[in-house]
Amino acid sequence: MAELHSQTGFLQAQGAPLYYEVAGQGEPLLLIHAGVADHRMWDEQFSAFAQHYRTIRYDLRGSGQSPYPAGPFAYYEDPTELLKSLGIEKAHVVGISFGGRIALDFTLTHPEMVKSLVLVAPSVGGTQPSELVKKFAEEEEAYLERGDLDAATELNLRMWVDGPQRTPEQVDAQVRERVRVMQRHAFTVPVPEGAENLALQPPAITRLSEVRVPTLVVVGDYDIPDKLELSQQLTDQIADAQLVVIPGVAHMVNMEQPEQLNQAVLSFLTKATNG
User: Fold this and answer.
1) Could you tell me the domains of the chain?
2) Which of 81, 134, 128, 125 is nearest to 99 (CA)?
3) Boundaries of each AB hydrolase-1 domain copy (predicted)?
């Protein structure tokens, strides 16, 4: 394996530091992690993708080493600031779960900066939560109000790692533990009184026809029904989008089946680059 050119650092963006890492050379590739994780969820992708691309990953606000700003901020503007600080005009963008929502919002806001888009089990702004997701959110809030961070974390593992079709015992214990550490840390990150997330308006779900870049949608067949239905909707409404369903895996596709995910993404990127 070739030696990678790598760097880490903090960027001052939207009033607070943003932690990022860069490795490899070639066309830029930005990785945006899930809400239950931080940049470390991409460990199995970062080095693999950096063999072919200049690969960037960062911690979202309130995750890992990136604190919340003490004022209004937009998640989808952090990629703008980060790429510009690195001298990058255009990048391939990969986002998973909440990171998929950010990737899509970023693409709609700055289409000139996106060469291709990969959405893995994404959330999308403007969608209505199902009863399953509402119940999850209510239970999570109840645990957090009681200060039971361990129970709130386990609830997230059951929802987003195990999925509705599996018990914890049927899931890779190392994957569960890695997500547990990242999610529990996120619950301890303080939220300044003035922090306010500015959602994209109009929301992305009403603007899918605006996406004009090559797009790949990936989802695991054990994920919650919302994600399977939304992935199909994205594929239907984004021009020429492709859908890949990975069997035997729930929401954390890239951690449970890294080789399959990497192969699907690298194959797509090769076509997007040369197409």
Assistant:
1) 6-128+191-274 (3.40.50.1820), 131-188 (no CATH)
2) 125
3) 28-258
Q: Which pTM value belongs to this model?
A: 0.97
And the tokens for 199? Answer: 């959602």
Q: Are 251 and 220 in contact (CB under 8 A)?
A: yes
Q: Are 222 and 166 in contact (CB under 8 A)?
A: yes
CB-facing half-sphere around the CA of 115: CA atoms within 13 A: 19
Joined together, the tokens standing for residue 50 give: 């950096």
Q: What digits encode the pLDDT tens for the residues 175-232?
A: 999 999 999 999 999 999 999 999 999 999 999 999 999 999 999 999 999 999 999 9
- Residue for token digits 């291709």? 116
CA distances 193 to 25, 67, 69, 71, 215, Å, are: 40, 13, 10, 8, 37
The pair phi, psi for residue 50, each rounded to 5°, is -70, -10
- 66: which 2 tokens? 């990136």
Using DSSP, state whether 104 is helix, strand or coil: helix
Taking the CA atoms of 144, 148, 153 and 156 in sequence, report the sign of the dihedral they define.
negative
Alpha helices, DSSP H only, in 158-192?
173-188
Q: Is the peptide bond before 202 cis (omega within 30 degrees of 0)?
A: yes
Work out the pLDDT band at 6, boundaries 50, 70, 90. confident
Grouping H, G, I as helix, E, B as strand and the rest as coil, residue 82 is helix
Tell me if 27 sits within 8 A of 53, measured CB to CB.
yes
CB 46 within 8 Å of CB 21:
yes
